[in-house]
Amino acid sequence: MTSPGAAGSIRLDKLLWYLRFARSRSIAQAMVAAGHIRLDGRRITRSSCAVHAGATLVLPVGERIEVIRLLSLPPRRGPATEAQACYERLGPAPADPAPPAIDADGNALHPEQPDRTNQ
């Protein structure tokens, strides 16, 4: 059996699993089938779609949208650092997380409310 890099392409569901955007191949297949993935600007609904190095992917990650460019095809599902070396993120850097909603004592923090007593 040859490695995916030797063939020059890899299945989209396998790529999402290798790059750790999905916890399993079946989850990756469901993401693709639902139409959540774009490959070079086209919506893809077929898990078996071939992906090559240099392709641009748009995919949901949690509550945000990631745009990535494949630098190389991963040879296996390895550690996260190995997976991250195969692509580069495009677009803005992730925003700073929201301020905490609970203080150290466990009490809810509320944003400052404007004074409306004189209206």
Describe what you observe in this structure.
With 119 residues, the chain is of the alpha+beta class. It has helices spanning 4-7, 12-18, 25-33, 80-84; strands at residues 10-11, 37-39, 42-44, 50-51, 56-61, 64-70, 87-90. Helix 2 (12-18) crosses helix 3.
Kindly summarize this structure in a few lines.
It contains four helices and seven strands.
Tell me the span between the first and last alpha carbons.
76 Å
Order of helices and strands: HEHHEEEEEHE
**Largest sheet descriptor:** 5 strands, antiparallel
Rg of Cα set: 20 Å
How is the topology of this model organized?
Blueprint: H1 4-7, E1 10-11, H2 12-18, H3 25-33, E2 37-39, E3 42-44, E4 50-51, E5 56-61, E6 64-70, H4 80-84, E7 87-90
Antiparallel strand pairs: 1-4, 2-3, 2-5, 5-6, 6-7
Helix pairs in contact: 2-3
Provide keyphrases for this structure.
alpha+beta; five-stranded antiparallel sheet; disordered N terminus; single chain; 4 helices; two-stranded antiparallel ribbon; 119 residues
